[in-house]
UniProtKB/TrEMBL annotation:
Pfam families: Endonuclease_7
Keywords: Endonuclease, Hydrolase, Nuclease
Record-given protein name: Recombination endonuclease VII
One function term, GO molecular function aspect: endonuclease activity
InterPro entries: Endonuclease_7, Endonuclease_7_sf, His-Me_finger_sf
């Protein structure tokens, strides 16, 4: 049949199912002037599966494994082989239907395996991704600080502090000092006011008798007079 008879007003007849369909329902083919092949997409998929099964049989002597039917709202995880509801799969905007390919347990295991293979562990991955340094640079900076928190001097600090505006690493702090800077929003003015406040309200020891002291707060008036 000539091409003129094969195409009608933007439609084409599939050579397998013999049905007339719009051109966008045919597979792409760069060798055709209109960029579409001779078989509709369902028929082309059947041909591809049959061709794959034939090659597998001839080259490896194996049959194509038939996958079990998956009910609506479910997906089969290729790692564990279980069919689970879509809610058991992580969200993925680029994935089919908005969900990832692997179920959540398998997804987590693959993530751990990938971090271990590429970075040597989760901590190295976390440091590289968030701060741009690794465990080696962390230990070098900690050694420069003498192995203690850069603010309070407590031993074995574990938190890498950075400037939230520039992303630059500033030092290594203990949990309390790192959290304290975060609560003050890294604002020197707030910290200076806090220092002034503490200096003006800190309880002080006042000598009231030889060898006897009384705790006094400036916010409660003047220190009591020494006893006679």
């Amino acid at each position: 049949m000539s091409r003129a008879l094969d195409d009608r007003d933007g439609r084409r007849r599939c050579r397998d199912c013999d049905e007339w369909k719009p051109l966008d329902e045919f597979c792409a083919n760069s060798r055709r002037p209109d960029g579409r092949g001779s078989y509709c997409k369902p028929c082309f998929n059947l041909r591809s599966k049959a061709s794959y099964a034939k090659r597998l049989k001839e080259k490896h002597g194996r049959e194509v494994r038939e996958l079990p039917a998956v009910p609506d709202g479910h997906r089969r995880c290729p790692t564990c082989g279980e069919t689970k509801p879509l809610d058991d799969f992580p969200r993925n905007r680029s994935g089919r239907g908005g969900y990832g390919r692997y179920c959540k347990p398998c997804h987590n295991e693959k993530g751990k395996e990938s971090k271990l293979r590429l970075h040597g562990g989760f901590r190295e991955y976390h440091l590289r991704r968030r701060y741009g340094v690794g465990e080696k640079e962390f230990q070098e900076l900690l050694a420069e600080q003498g192995g203690v928190c850069a603010i309070c001097g407590s031993p074995e600090p574990q938190h890498l502090d950075h400037d939230h505006r520039t992303g630059w690493v500033r030092g290594i702090l203990c949990f309390n000092c790192n959290g304290g800077l975060g609560q003050f929003r890294d604002d020197p003015v707030r910290l200076a006011r806090a220092i002034t406040y503490l200096r003006g309200t800190t309880w002080q020891r006042v000598l009231i008798h030889p060898g006897v002291f009384q705790m006094c707060s400036p916010t409660r008036g003047r220190p009591p007079s020494p006893r006679s």
